[in-house]
Amino acid sequence: LIDREVAKYPADQKQSAVMAALAIAQDEKGWLARETIEYVANYLEMPAIAAYEVASFYNMYDLDPVGKYKITVCTNLPCALSGGVHAADYVKEKLGIDFNETTADGKFTLKEGECMGACGDAPVMLVNNKRMCSFMTPAQIDKLLAECK
Amino acid sequence: MLEIEIDGKSLQVAEGSTIMDAAHEAGTYIPHFCYHKKLSIAANCRMCLVQVEKAPKPLPACATPVANGMKVFTHSELALKAQKGVMEFLLINHPLDCPICDQGGECQLQDLAVGYGSSASRYQEEKRVVFNKNLGPLVNTDMTRCIHCTRCVRFTTEIAGEMEMGQAGRGEHAEIMPFIEKTVDSELSGNIIDLCPVGALTSKPFRYAARTWELARRKSVAPHDGLGSNIIVQVKHDKVLRVLPLENEDINECWLSDKDRFSYEAVNSEQRLTKPMVKQGGQWVEADWGVALDYIGHALKDVVKTHGADAVGTLVSPQATLEEMFLAQKLTRELGSHNVDFRLRHSDFSLDGKRAGTPWLGMKVTEFAKLDRVLVVGSFLRKDHPLLAQRLRQSAKRGTQVSLIQSVDDDQLIKNTLRAVGLPSQLPQVLAEVVKAVATAKGAAVDAALSGVTVSAAAQKIADSLVSGSNAGVFLGNFAQQHPQAASLEALAQQLAKLLGAKHGVLGEAANSVGGYVAKALPFGHGGNGLNAAQMFAQPRKAYLLVNTEPELDSANGAQATAALKDAAMVAVFSAFKSEAALDYADVLLPISPFTETSGTFVNTEGRVQSFNAVAKALGETRPGWKVLRVLGNVLNLPGFEYVSSEEVRDEVLGGADEFVNGLDNGVNAAVSLNGAAAGGVERIADVPIYFADALVRRAPSLQRARDAAAPAARVNA
Amino acid sequence: MALIATKNPLLTVGWEKGDAGWGIKEYEARGGYQSLRKILTEKTPPENIIAELKASVLRGRGGAGFPTGLKWSFMPKVINGDRYVVCNSDEGEPGTFKDLDLLRYDPHSVIEGMAIAAYVMSANRGYNYIHGEIFEIYKRFEAALDEARAAGLIGQNILGSGFNFELFAHHGYGAYICGEETGLLESIEGKKGQPRFKPPFPATFGLYGKPTTINNTETFAAVPYILKMGGEQYLNLGKPNNGGTKLFSISGHVNKPGNYEIPMGMPFSELLEMAGGMRGGRKLKAVIPGGSSAPVLPGDIMMQCTMDYDSIAKAGSMLGSGAIIVMDETVCMVKALERLSYFYFEESCGQCTPCREGTGWLYRVVHRIESGEGRPEDLELLMSVTDNIMGRTICALGDAASLPVRSFVQHFKSEFEHHIQNKQCLVPHDVQRAGSSFYM
Ligand SMILES: Cc1cc2nc3c(=O)[nH]c(=O)nc-3n(C[C@H](O)[C@H](O)[C@H](O)COP(=O)(O)O)c2cc1C
Ligand code: SF4
Ligand code: FES
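That is the input. Now the predicted structure with flavin mononucleotide docked in place:
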């Protein structure tokens, strides 16, 4: 899987695949532990600290364990104007957690997101970095949370 | 050349130089933090913003290339406003703990803040707090003080060759750190202390020891490897508290290896010998100098009378000063013995008498840095010669091809090196393969001794690389010089150099390896032949003089040495330290000064004469080694011991040569023999760990706690 | 998916079919890849193509508005070694979501545009850097790439012309700063996305240190259409010096937020109509016309503007990325600014001092004012801090963080003062709450 990414770049530029490799590792392990980052670094023949720099620079990498479902809500201004913040409040209330917290059953983690480039569909939420949910109303949020088994 | 103007002063600067370079030439100071002449340009601190005519915004001097006719204003209103603004930003999250900061007094931020910062801060919010990191036993952190100039990051990556530090996180949360739970283990790590413009990275051993302005700064020379780095020793109340590099572009540039920087701890160690001691009836008692010296005098005379002068043997450390070496051998020879040597770690002396001169680097260090092809044989390069390795690391970036023939496949952190690895006993074979390959390539006749050699792929690669260059150099490392077949290795290196039209040389083992030859501290070539270091122990003597050395640890065969010393009638130890071993085998202990408490001279691997003075008062009744030997000469009423100063001794030794010594020549007149190699089997790699190499580093607690001091897991290469 | 309305569509013709129209068949059916085929078969001299682009006065759609033809002509002529074309789809500028729909409904136009660019600048490799949060779009673009590869439109020896061009997608992972072109390059190189000091510019020292040209998604997408219709025509779609049509992303208090393709120079009032007017018929208070980094403009000023670089610039703001954030009277401008300042504070790469330290300072002061702890001198302070940031940083994020602060304070001073004096919003909280339609 990682090799497919490595293949995208010139032979002497393996390091270019580090973002993809970390993403793949995170999908597999749920989050990026020290060992995981070190493994990726060794695999790509780059210094561990350089891989850590990357892992800690980009928002979507999790350096701490997260719940089975990580829900990221965009609260940036354009979204907020159409209920982004309120949608977040609604989720907090439903799950009884605040941003950067995980539900007791380890099922949900809530994150505050920055602009996802989908302001027109506000409020928007991102599930596990992959699935974008648009025009979220209370009803749809209920539905989403119910779907997350 | 480009024509430009800085603050109204016009000057010419080279194409491609930056405004910072130009200002430097014009003698104008532009404030800066992230810029450093030896590091890549980051332009992140923004302190160096200056006004440039026609430019709408202030520009960073460190990163802006000069253009012809450019008019730069470094202190115009616009420039000052920009610099003040940056300074304010730097200070808002910087703690105001200067009173307890070790950097206080030598802090660039502090200095500049005085000039720029407005007294009262307009920043009323909470200041950032950053957790400290554990970088190991040498570098202390106060990361809240960090201003994110990334000098330390760039140093580890670019100069030390391994990215051990980075900037994690983003924005205001960004933190300078090593990888989680990792320390900075580079043998050059201490330099990040000097590079850090604030008090974020400071010296752990020096922590809270003193305020910088209380320290006297005195010049000296590092007493470890053959480079002879120039240092500033900082002293308070005659106690050495810190060692810093003294910039010398021809030698250590602005760097210092950790052993040169932190070994000073040893001179403050508990194990210092402070009074002469004599063993009486198996009991150690402190004695006056007079008594102790008489004791030795009588003992020596006895031995000479009953067993002949040849029963006396003198061993001098290759880290002893030129003066100590010279007087030690003079004294021995005057007694009638030629048993004197400083090459304790060597095991092949067959070249004695076959040398054209003193073995040395074969060129200046600056020339070494300019070679385009380099072959190093048998060296733990990074650890044995941290700064020479660093020079090669930089050359490699400029395209120099470095090849290594070694017994352990260590990574020297030098860009694309070619490596050939062989058992210790096979080193000559491997080198021979390269010689043969080169000879073939050059269409030259191959030495008959190499007829049986078959060239391996690795050797062929190295040969091809060497042949492709126009300015090659061939060098033997410590391991090669100490090798049982050192003679063959030297002969091969000489052949190879000839074939390549290149220079060859040895990487100086110790601070005074060249000096030892100059001071005649050798058993041959000076009016008679005596026993060499190995023989003196293999064929035990009755009396031994040990100057500055601990043979049980410093010689090729420590066990044999210890045995010989135990059986001797009289062992006189001239040392700064009291060791269990010495208390066991010695009869007299004389406290002589370590390099910090005596004047003296080291001749470095390029033959450069470097004299230094004492930087601190001698501890207790310690006396400079040269004085002690001189007085002992008198006690024995030997002729020619009337020197009144170490300079007098030095001048006699050097015979006029002042900057570089005479007689440097790596030529040897010896044949190559490739037999006698116990091929196969398991062989121990007789590697001398960096923090084990001499009496000082062995006693520097902080160095002993460093990664590199981790017990030399007897490295075996099967 | 976002709503689309268009006036004589160009870029968005393919969008009408929605998710059914993105494939290569549909794209070719509507004349796609004709420009590329033509160029490769006729071996059109690159100069001619650049000339067309210059004639069209296509200006970069990424925010800077730099003339694309000119940019392409900067690539060093000497052809040796690798060169790259890079597409900037790291759409992270708050309010912007046009590239998202472009890649969703018409990915092949971007591929074709990049291939043409590669031909013009004799580059053999390209990357499209796609915003982290839009995974599905990244997947779709990769699918489109596979189609194009299968059809021999990218890869080795394209259409037997001997021209090679390998194109790949690089997935971002959440960092606004990677939208900055050199930060983006660093990111592709597998480092943190910290912008580089310029000069040297990407055209001479770009990806892996090789000559590189970077353009925005929409810029590339426009190229095939321009070449098909000719630069002149394209220019005439818009108005002088503001060529062609442009995508505008409208968000906030309008009835129909979404992407709109309109000819440059159309009055804002008309565009607002198309977007269904103000939500709940409320009064227009303010508009940010070019993405969150552009200075905010009061509603009445905005109503006088036409949608093009020059008109908006004259009004004291920037067309930027064409993201229009519409705010009605239910908005507390202090709260709005607080959120924006928080964004820049969080997204500063942390490299250079004024931005790393300054963005945090700005946010904290605005936050203090918003939470009723403002001091009279704070507005002064905000202005002077922005003064010390602007023009002193490595990249333009410093300015991007400062302009909102300056414009909000400048145009809505009374609201800020009210906050400081009365320690509360001018706009009652229940009114603000009603603003977002969430609770209806
Ligand atoms: C902080 C910052 C963020 C940026 N974000 C984007 C972006 O998300 N998308 C984009 O196309 N350009 C962005 N840009 C502009 C790019 O640096 C660059 O100018 C643009 O991609 C050039 O393409 P164009 O000439 O087609 O506009 C950003 C610039 C800055 C300083
Ligand atoms: S302005 Fe900000 S984002 Fe841009 S380089 Fe400097 S610190 Fe990074
Ligand atoms: S010295 Fe120029 S920006 Fe730091």
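The pocket of FE2/S2 (inorganic) cluster (ligand 3) is lined by residues B 32-35, 43-48, 60, 62 (CB under 6 Å).
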